[in-house]
């Protein structure tokens, strides 16, 4: 508390603020080159984006890079944002595209995409911090999800994990809404089969 | 877990996803009663959702800050669409050389002897262009992003290792990387100067005078009316509203004591804009003043302390509030708690009432009266259910 008081004119007090701008306003400021607005958007949504990316990549090592690139991509295309008050679906959509691109690059170079089926050991042994964080339930869930194809896993996580609508997912992935529901249906069937094979009732 | 296929399973999902009308749902219910596959599917869908909802541990605040800092650092190298790309150093040098030549030629044509001002080769016109261009002689890493807001007017000048932006009107966000020794980045207005290094700061000016300085990342140093304000991330500074007496007309610093000088209302006001960021605002007096033996030497940094001038008449209760805050700052927590609580209850509609109520809680805590602090926190939550310090108040209220 070293700010002047109203006599001394330094008051270390929280400033009364207007209601925060919605994401549409913030992104318009980003489009105008305001980097501080990018920081605000990061604070609002980075956790949701990171959560999605971690699950979608089965905690791949480049998850943090994808999260960063998601926001940088948004900055580049901010001028095209449609002004919706919440940008979460938009950001998750960008992240999904980046996850797909990353997976394709990996596949091209080292068939690393097949490793997604065996990521539990990698996830658990990646860092001590990660090891401490990963709960048994989450490891189990990741293990089950890793059996899904990338396309099904993406749709499943976007709808069931992030609560996006079918239309939002369709827009984000550039596919028809009917395809979204079809992928979700087969994802669910695959998951049930996986659980049945493991004897989980 | 039966996974026998049934075409109607898609309808089961449609209902689960909220895509089925009431009439279809009723028909589906009748079907599910007789279909084992659909019944099993209905029962399994929530379990599948639980798998998707298993969330990794969230980032710690420190990790989030690092992630944010990394993002802004990366973003500073990229320019969004709509903002002109910064020119490389050699391009700027070329442009400046051309401008110098053109200015010289025009000067020769007009036969006007050059003055110190119009002879300056690096005096550009006001522009809204994002600036990252150092002078040819400046190191390449001396790159900066200026993100002007609509209507902003400013001019840039680079001299040696110093880059100066003169902000005349509007607002702009300046992201300045850490500078090497000998480099400087300054934002100037007619009445002040802001020095940045490794910081992200938004500055707003009106009529060539500074209105607000908000530090988003790093630190900034504001020089205004003979004093220096050191602001950290989350701090906002603004000059006093009453600027009738120009700083040059009367001494901005009370010669009696540096502390009083620091607290001169003409020097401005700093506050914390980002809750939880633990920002600080420190006033350092730089103007020479005769220092009595009992006070801190002038050339030593002085943290703002007391100031006795009368408060503006427009601020009802300002004296009470200022006195109470002063008591808090001085560490007289028992008295501060009492005064702050009195102010809060006497001025419930005042914008500072919430602040006073929260500071009263802290005062009680620091006095060791945890039970009373918890009770005060409860009262705060009742009075300000959506208060800015709600999260902290909830913790304090629950701590006893």
Number of strands of chain B: 12
Multimeric status of the protein? heterodimer
Distance between the termini of chain A: 58 Å
> What fraction strand of chain A?
under 5%
- Which pair of chains has the greatest number of interface residues, and how are they split between the two chains? A-B, 73 and 94 residues
Keywords:
heterodimer, A: 201 residues, mainly alpha, 10 helices, elongated, disordered N terminus, B: 400 residues, twelve-stranded mixed sheet, 37% helix
List the helices and strands and how they pair.
The complex is a heterodimer of chains A (201) and B (400).
Chain A lengths: L9 E5 L8 H9 L3 H22 L6 H15 L10 H23 L8 H7 L2 H6 L2 H10 L4 H12 L4 H8 L3 H21 L4
Chain B lengths: L8 H8 L5 H13 L1 H17 L8 H17 L11 H22 L33 E5 L4 E7 L2 E15 L7 E5 L3 E5 L2 E8 L2 E9 L1 E6 L2 E6 L2 E4 L19 H5 L6 E4 L8 E5 L32 H13 L2 H14 L6 H15 L2 H14 L6 H9 L2
Parallel strand pairs in B: 3-4
Antiparallel strand pairs in B: 1-3, 2-3, 3-6, 4-5, 5-8, 6-7, 7-10, 8-9, 9-12, 10-11
Helix pairs in contact in B: 1-3, 2-3, 7-8, 8-9, 9-10, 10-11
Briefly characterize the structure.
The complex is a heterodimer of chains A (201) and B (400). Chain A is mainly alpha-helical and 201 residues long.
